[in-house]
Write a structure and sequence with these properties.
The protein is of the alpha/beta class and 204 residues long. The strands form 2 sheets. The protein has a 5-stranded parallel β-sheet with strand order 2-5-1-6-7, with helices on both faces. It has a 3-stranded antiparallel β-sheet with strand order 3-4-8, with no helix packed on it. A hairpin with a 2-residue loop joins strand 3 and strand 4. Helix 1 crosses helix 7 and helix 4 packs antiparallel against helix 5. The longest helix is centred in the middle third of the chain and has 13 residues. The radius of gyration is 16 Å and the shape is globular.
């Protein structure tokens, strides 16, 4: 089994990944570690790695029984069984990022990304119905993992389309116009000039 665990920074991927790995007996792989181990980066700017997604994909081809954790994991085109997108209420996410001492501009960028559901949209574009979301707001990692396992083991259907726009912008009418991402509800999955055409140059 191959699981990809993605989501905006601060949504709980690392903690959830560790618990999920223990429950399923799968190897836990973190993109940030693999980038350094396999030198899958194009450049380093201000202590930030510009990740070579294609390099990571090549190293992981043919491998099985692992959970890949990282906010870029959904951009790797692998033979994944499930892609799990962790979502968090922007107000709670803001507190988490502040506790990590993220700079204000980085907090703002990540909150907007979460409000717009960018990770979910990108994941659905590549993996389609294999993608489902889990809301981590106010939940312990063990609770989140229980929800994930319910979907994987067929006890319930996964859901998709968590909408935090009104929560973040105070009403959809205040949301900025984005031509390349949907503004609410389940996305239109028709072709568009997406991040896939620039898939090799993402930062961690």
């Amino acid at each position: 089994m191959i699981l990809l665990l993605t989501g905006t920074p601060g949504t709980g991927k690392t903690l959830v990944g560790k618990v999920l790995s223990d429950r399923l007996g799968l190897e836990l792989l973190e993109i940030s570690d693999l980038v350094r181990k396999w030198k899958c980066y194009l450049d380093v700017e201000d202590d930030t790695y510009i990740v070579d997604i294609e390099c990571l994909s090549k190293h992981l081809k043919g491998r099985d029984d692992y959970i890949l954790v990282g906010h870029l994991s959904h951009l790797l085109e692998l033979d994944a069984d499930w892609v799990i997108v962790l979502r968090t209420n922007p107000k709670e996410l803001e507190e988490r990022l502040k506790s990590r001492r993220y700079p204000e501009d980085k907090i703002r960028d990540n909150l907007e990304s979460e409000a717009l559901g960018i990770c979910s949209y990108e994941a659905r574009e590549i993996y389609g119905e294999k993608v489902f979301e889990v809301d981590t707001s106010g939940k312990r990692p063990e609770e989140v993992v229980s929800e994930i396992l319910d979907v994987i083991w067929g006890r319930r259907k996964g859901y998709y389309g968590i909408d935090y726009l009104e929560e973040y912008y105070g009403g959809e009418g205040n949301a900025p116009v984005r031509e390349d991402y949907p503004t609410h509800g389940p996305p239109d999955l028709s072709p568009h000039p997406s991040s896939r055409s620039h898939i090799h140059g993402h930062r961690i």
